[in-house]
Amino acid sequence: MSSVSPVPASRPERSSPSGPAAASPPLLSPSVPTIVLRVALAALEVVGGVRDVSQLAHWISTETYTHLELRAALARRSRAQRNQGPHHTAYSLGTPHLCYPTPDVVEAAVVAQTERSAIAVAIRLERGDSRWQVVHLHVI
Fold first, then answer.
1. Domain that holds residue 37
2. What ranges does the record give for the region Disordered, renumbered to this chain (predicted)?
3. DSSP summary character for residue 114
């Protein structure tokens, strides 16, 4: 018969990594998760053809604007080839997952559920002079 040793009541504290990869979360405005959710939903609507990318101009960088504009044009062309127009899809957005590589950077992922599928949106925000700006946005 083998003996079983008892499991300790508490586990030892794990040491956290140090260095740039282990930056602690900055004191965020409560609006950062809201910004992430609103930008993610708006980006999905841009790709779906029911929102103009110019409505996001305040929140996104020039490079991100150009990328999203191209993605919307490709989606529009694809819908036209299938004789489909823009249509509003009801998205159910999950809780954003936030990561803080540095105090002035937030990386986020949000999953949007539809009746038939799930779509991920990856966003990188950087804090500028007085506000957060989306510098990368990918609808996956």
1. 28-139
2. 1-25
3. -
Find, among 72, 132, 140, the residue nearest to 104 by Cα.
132
Domain membership of residue 36 (yes or no) is yes
Distances (CA, A) of 78 to 53, 73, 74, 111: 18, 9, 6, 23
Q: Are strands 92-93 and 118-127 parallel, antiparallel or unpaired?
A: unpaired
Evaluate whether 106 touches 98 at the Cβ level (below 8 Å): yes
What CATH number has the domain bearing residue 110? 3.10.450
pLDDT band at residue 6 under the 50/70/90 scheme: very low
Per-residue model confidence (pLDDT) at position 27: 56
The answer as to whether 48 is a domain residue is yes
Query: Does 9 have pLDDT greater than 60?
Result: no
